[in-house]
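User: Please predict the structure of the protein below. I'd like the answer in structure-token form so I can feed it into my own downstream comparison script.

Assistant: Understood. Taking the following sequence of 129 residues as input:
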Amino acid sequence: MGSYEISPTQAVTSALTMLKQGRVHSIKLEGGAAYTPHIRALTTAGVPVLSHIGLTPQRQHSLGGFRVQGKTAAGALTVLDDALAVQAAGAWGVVLEAVPAEVAALLGCAVLTGGGAVLNAAGPRDGDD
């Protein structure tokens, strides 16, 4: 943590450094709707952004640990809102982590449009009831 959370300006400064010095082609930003100003600033500056929603490991303590996100109707709507928000802000794709397969399928097939990709980074595992 610490390379983009404080402000959109910090996000752009950090990302441009990574692009120039690290020779990366895109950055991954953990966070959904709350980080749309950051994503907009990055894409406006020409930085491709891959968004990471659902279980975001950098914030796992605030989520109650490493737990599946979007299991309830309200939780699924939060994941949906996050996905739509980051897409509208310009993210080229979305990584879903620890999201039920049904929610991931809805996002991938029915909601997200354009050139973006939806990647479900974690399928069901024992203990994820």
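That's the full token string. The CA atoms of residues 26 and 47 lie 6 Å apart.
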